[in-house]
């Protein structure tokens, strides 16, 4: 199966659209990074558990922080999200969703380990299902090249998946 790249401009509603779309899917796993009450969270699509990834009080943070532009993220949240993704890969869901591959992943950080493993797994002829990765429009070509994704389909609407 090809890798599906859901791409669009920054703040164009990609994650919101994925929240709605994913709620109607069966056998879906992975993570979304919705903005809830002005702060980025991680949503585990299987358990529906939500946890903080964005640190809003950097001065008083008691754990390692990763800086990406104007955002501050908890390093431990990335570790937890990668564990969720690795466990999902082992379960071979019909859909594995990773929101998102961005600047951090292009530096070998963030969701990088999970994306590398997922791309390798989904390249195989007997891949378990479909891989869907969110990528902002301006980084799409760079992400495809960096992760050596050979068979892919870039979509700008989730209607293309039905």
Quickly describe the structure.
The chain is an alpha/beta fold. 31% of the residues lie in helices and 28% in strands.
Describe this structure in words.
The protein is an alpha/beta fold. It is 31% helix and 28% strand. It is built from 5 helices and 10 strands. The protein has helices at residues 14-23, 75-91, 103-106, 112-123, 140-146, and strands at 3-8, 28-32, 35-36, 39-44, 50-52, 65-68, 71-74, 95-99, 130-136, 152-155. Strands 1, 2, 3, 4, 5, 8, 9 and 10 form an 8-stranded mixed beta sheet that branches. It has a two-stranded antiparallel sheet with strand order 6-7. β3 (35-36) and β4 (39-44) form a beta hairpin. α2 runs parallel beside α4 (112-123). The longest helix has 17 residues, at 75-91.
Identify the notable features of this structure and list them briefly:
162 residues; alpha/beta; eight-stranded mixed sheet; two-stranded antiparallel ribbon; 10 strands; 28% strand; globular
What structural class results from the helix and strand content?
alpha/beta
Portion in helices: 25-40%
Major beta sheet summary: 8 strands, mixed
Separation of termini?
15 Å
In the predicted model, the low-confidence regions spanning at least 5 consecutive residues are: none
Discrete helix count: 5
**Radius of gyration, taken over Cα atoms and rounded to an integer in Å:** 15 Å
Into which percentage range does the β-strand content fall?
Answer: 25-35%
Based on Cα principal axes, name the global outline.
globular
Write down the oligomeric state.
single chain
Mean pLDDT: 93
